[in-house]
């Protein structure tokens, strides 16, 4: 019974991770990684910076050509919302 429960939990965690990975494409990952590099020295933990960058990427239009760092400057309300969501400030 324990093995069955453990197997089900493992399968559920793998399935939920796959859903997230499928919703992000290579372009999203490129922008998120650039955002993480741009913000790594801003005093927040790596997890907070990643959560912030993912949030900002989700708020941006898929056809946006600017980086997250460029886009956040002209969208301060989105920046503040993602800071709160990520637990940054």
Gross geometry: globular
Structural class: mainly alpha
How much strand? under 5%
Helix content: over 70%
Query: What does the largest sheet look like?
Result: none
The end-to-end distance, rounded to whole angstroms, is 45 Å
* Element string (H = helix, E = strand): HHHHH
Strands, total number:
0
Report Rg. 16 Å
Give your account of this protein's structure.
By secondary structure, this protein is an all-alpha fold. The chain is built from five helices and no strands. The chain has a domain at 25-86. It has helices at residues 2-23, 26-39, 46-59, 68-73, 76-86. Helix 2 crosses helix 3 (46-59) and helix 3 crosses helix 5 (76-86). The longest helix has 22 residues, at 2-23.
Keywords:
89 residues; mainly alpha; 5 helices; 0% strand; globular; disordered N terminus
Architecture blueprint of SSEs:
Elements: H1 2-23, H2 26-39, H3 46-59, H4 68-73, H5 76-86
Kindly summarize this structure in a few lines.
By secondary structure, the protein is mainly alpha-helical. The chain has five helices and no strands.
């Amino acid at each position: 019974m324990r093995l069955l429960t453990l197997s089900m939990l493992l399968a559920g965690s793998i399935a939920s991770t796959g859903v997230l990975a499928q919703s992000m494409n290579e372009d999203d990952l490129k922008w998120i990684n650039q955002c993480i590099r741009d913000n790594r020295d801003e005093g927040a933990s790596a997890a907070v910076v990643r959560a912030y960058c993912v949030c900002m990427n989700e708020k941006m239009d898929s056809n946006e050509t600017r980086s997250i760092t460029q886009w956040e400057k002209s969208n301060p309300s989105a920046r503040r919302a993602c800071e709160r969501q990520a637990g940054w400030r």
